[in-house]
Amino acid sequence: MKFYKQTILVLLVFFSLQFADCRINDFGLEKDERQIISIEDFGFLSGGEFKLEVESLLITNYKNAANENVGFILESTGEVSEGNEDTCQIFHKTGSLQYHIITKPDNGWANFKKTIQINKEGVYTLWYLNCIGVESETTLVSTITMKNKSSYLDAGEQPLPKIYITFFFFYFISLILWISYQRKKNKKVFKIHHLMTALLVSKSLSILCKSIEFHMISSTGLPKGANIPYYIFHFFKGVLLFVVILLVGTGWSFIKDTLNERDKKIFMFIIPAQIISNIAIIVLDETVAGTRGYLQWWDILKFFDLVCVCCIIFPIIYTISHLQSTASVDGKMAKNVERLRIFKEFYIVTFIYIYTTRLFVMIIPRFLSFKLLYLDSIFNELVSLLFYIYVGYRFRPVQDNAYISIYNDSFDETDDNTVIIDLEQFDDANDTLKRVKKDGDKEDTDDMFEDDDFIDDDDDDKSSSNEEDK
């Protein structure tokens, strides 16, 4: 109960935040002692515009300053860096940077507006430098606007609205086909299939809202509330994805209606951790990069997310290890080999999907031109779509599902409190009984139960007496 209260509290805080996923950003500092701050990057095309509106800039201990090197710098040369000791010398250089925005505070306070027209395309970084030579703190209230000639989006983001709406149609068509397939006759639909449907719905809606959000940012510079439904559906999609992978890996609903203690412990760790991780990553993703501790928290939460990802494949690894040790058991070798093959295949595909969508998407942008950064999003969505198609096809509801049949007559995958029912044999026996009852053929009924010693003792006595009379 305590955990659920904490989760609800986190959700309330999350949905009350004013997100910064836009190109008109409010940026502020509160008694920040950092000397060099990287505020934000943006890919400008020729004809773009940068606007900085400083409502209040307050610097403490300014009267004792050794110099007046305080200001904002917009540059694309890479000469400014947080670890470069000579960065403050840039104030004395001329012509080495694309653009300078330098303000001289009046007794430690200033407000101003500055607009720059971008004539040379490239990735520009806005920096704040406080190099007055003495310890001081900065308090800042400002608004930053970056836009290209026809869009507020970064040069590498401009195709994204069309890309996301295209993938929405792919997911929507997949959802229609998936639901239509389940409604056909003679399909064994389990609870896990309904969860897969919910996953497809949340994924489709999240990517639709993402397309709308980027469209609004492109035209107005602000998401206009379109980011809120996106994060709601993205949140549920992330949780459902991990749940489906875990449940498919443990055989829940297909084979058993309960989870053993090992699976429950994994769920108790991963699901709450993934919920918090998703919320925190989204919040950081929507925070201006120059905020204090941004990079540190981003690295921590990315690592935490990868830890959760590693944990979800533990049940699959455990099952594979168990199958390898029992693959040569007499009478079960063929089934165990088939089971081992299926779980190895599922493990490999899941591993590739998880690490390509988390590691490769961080590496790919390093090798792309700033105009082609949208290819990273295409790659991520394409890999996700292929994974969804694979899972849906491999574990689709069919009459003779290999994922079910390979478990028949197997009790070694569960704990002592879990009972496995052979669903196919149960259905076959039930159909036979109904057919016998309908035909009224008593002899067939007697023959069916003869091998199972289900003949009534009274019937044996009657049969014996009839033979004696004859």
Please characterize this protein's 3D structure:
The protein has helices spanning 2-15, 160-182, 191-220, 227-250, 261-285, 294-312, 314-326, 333-363, 374-394, 402-405, 423-439, 442-450, 457-469, and strands spanning 24-32, 36-44, 49-59, 70-75, 101-102, 109-117, 122-130, 138-147. By secondary structure, the chain is α+β, with helices and mostly antiparallel strands. The longest helix has 31 residues, at 333-363. The model is unreliable at 1-20, 406-430, 442-457 and 462-470 (pLDDT under 50).
Overview in brief:
52% of the residues lie in helices and 14% in strands.
Summed up, the domain count is 3
Q: How many strands appear in the DSSP assignment?
A: 8
User: What would you call the shape?
Assistant: elongated
- What is the CA–CA distance across the termini? 76 Å
Percentage of residues assigned to helices: 40-55%
Q: What's the CATH architecture name of the largest domain?
A: Up-down Bundle
Task: Return the string of H and E elements.
Answer: HEEEEEEEEHHHHHHHHHHHH
Would you identify the regions where 5 or more consecutive residues have pLDDT less than 50? 1-20, 406-430, 442-457, 462-470
Structural class: alpha+beta
Count of alpha and pi helical runs: 13
CATH fold node name of the largest domain: Rhopdopsin 7-helix transmembrane proteins
